[in-house]
Write a structure and sequence with these properties.
This protein has 255 residues and is an alpha/beta fold. It is 47% helix and 14% strand. The protein has eight helices and seven strands. Helix 4 links the parallel strand 4 and strand 5. The longest helix has 29 residues. The radius of gyration is 18 Å and the shape is globular. The protein binds NADP nicotinamide-adenine-dinucleotide phosphate. NADP nicotinamide-adenine-dinucleotide phosphate binds next to helix 1.
């Protein structure tokens, strides 16, 4: 079981992918609750603006794809804070991609940032958390990793892979004192989804997403999924045998 976060005061939290959307809203919500928050992403001006004058905020720009930069930031946080209680991997990218128009460059970019980068970062992070004897990791994945969906050829595969990685970490790290959370949002109105041309059922705000994540981190469960009025149906679809799932998914999505 994960160790729940109930009192955020002075908790040391690092959010990677904090310059906009869900990560930015989560950073602000945790700062308001008294946590110390390091905000990372590539756009430093956004991080500095979000950190504002909050004494407990630290803008720590980096590209998650740069392994050396991640390790250097980890060193700095350990030096400045004396340890880390929670790291949330929120960085991600989404390119709609139909199976009839697979794009090799976009596939490489999507897998690199959504899957390979958090895995590689964990190769540096996990030994530090094990050495400190406690800590938690949250992976912002997606309900699109549950099953194959139209337009999600690269994105869905990257998120399915990330969720699988999180499961493995949870199995092996929880008995060693490290909590691992899998965060599966439905549709959230952020810059990432702003150009989606299709209808997004049960769309929520980034602030609502942040509240759901904080509520989930206060529980002991592995998966934090929301909004439930949407994820309930996706979880049902996940249980269906392929011979029922494929025709139903085609009908529901117009694929
Ligand atoms: N919005 C949704 O409906 C939805 C649903 C399910 C899951 N998600 C997931 O939620 C997470 C956040 O997405 P969002 O919707 O909040 O979109 P967003 O506003 O576009 O946020 C993406 C964040 O990732 C950062 N990022 C991208 N590439 C990076 C890199 N190479 N290094 C460091 N940071 C990087 C971006 O910052 P910079 O550009 O400044 O680097 C930004 O802070 C993503 O993992 C996404 O897949 C979103």
């Amino acid at each position: 079981m994960n160790r729940p976060f109930r009192d955020w005061r002075l908790q040391r939290v690092w959010i990677v992918g904090a310059s906009s959307g869900i990560g930015a809203a989560l950073a602000q919500a945790l700062l308001a609750r008294g946590a110390r928050v390091a905000l990372s992403a590539r756009r430093n001006d956004e991080l500095v603006r979000l950190a504002g004058t909050a004494e407990n905020a630290l803008a720590l720009p980096l590209d998650l794809g740069d392994t050396a930069a991640f390790s250097a930031a980890l060193d700095r946080l350990e030096r400045d804070w004396g340890g880390i209680d929670l790291v949330v991997f929120c960085a991600g990218t989404w390119t709609p991609m139909a199976a009839t128009r697979l794009d090799a460059d976009a596939i490489a970019r999507t897998l690199a940032i959504n899957l390979q980068a958090p895995m590689t970062a964990c190769a540096a992070l996990v030994p530090r958390l094990l050495a400190q004897g406690h800590g938690a990791i949250g992976f912002v994945s997606s309900v699109s990793g549950y099953r194959g969906l139209p337009q999600a050829a690269a994105y869905g595969a990257s998120k399915a892979g990330l969720s699988h990685f999180a499961e493995t970490l949870h199995l092996e790290l929880v008995p060693r004192g490290i909590s691992v959370y899998l965060i599966n949002p439905g549709f959230v109105a952020t810059p990432m989804t702003a150009t989606n041309a299709f209808r997004m059922p049960a769309l929520i705000t980034p602030e609502e997403a942040a509240d759901e994540i904080i509520a989930g981190l206060a529980r002991t469960g592995f998966e934090i999924h929301f909004p439930r009025r949407f994820t309930f149906w996706l979880k049902l679809l996940r249980l269906l045998p392929y011979r029922i799932y494929f025709p139903l998914a085609r009908r529901l999505t117009g694929a």
